[in-house]
Design brief:
The chain has six helices and no strands.
Length: about 150
């Protein structure tokens, strides 16, 4: 699917379900690609399938890499407040024919995946000043505090 086709589909989804900003769909698409690369999944085919748990972890890591201390603010602005919202976007894309799913896949798989505040805000709180931020898996931990660019 080309970027233009994806964008057109997202706008159609948004016309019927405006809970999430169109940018959230683009972000999810990027996070899905990031997760597939991290897991060394093939570009196509049945072995490319990514579980809800894998995707949620990929979203967490990718969001922190992309947005650092602004992650929670950015995701909330787009309408994402919990892992259930990630699932809602995934299943909107499944219903639109953009993503596929296995017979075992369910939107319930995204329930209670992780707490957004613990994942995206707590690592950057002032009381974490003297500790390292819980950065993305495989990254070098960084100190938080004044002057931290978050990237």
């Amino acid at each position: 699917m080309t970027d233009n086709q994806f964008n057109d589909t997202v706008l159609q989804i948004f016309a019927n379900d405006s809970r999430f900003a169109p940018e959230a769909y683009g972000f999810l698409r990027e996070a899905l690609d990031f997760t597939a690369r991290q897991l060394d999944k093939p570009e196509n085919g049945p072995k490319r399938h990514i579980s809800a748990r894998e995707l949620m972890e990929g979203v967490r890591v990718y969001a922190l890499r992309e947005f650092g201390p602004m992650t929670l603010t950015v995701l909330n602005t787009w309408g994402l407040h919990g892992t259930e919202d990630i699932g809602a976007i995934v299943f909107n894309l499944v219903e639109a024919g953009v993503l596929g799913k296995n017979a075992d896949d369910s939107i319930e798989d995204f329930r209670d995946g992780f707490d957004f505040i613990s994942a995206f805000d707590t690592p950057f709180c002032a009381d974490a000043e003297n500790s390292t931020a819980a950065g993305p898996a495989g990254s070098t931990p960084r100190k938080t505090g004044k002057g931290s660019a978050g990237r």
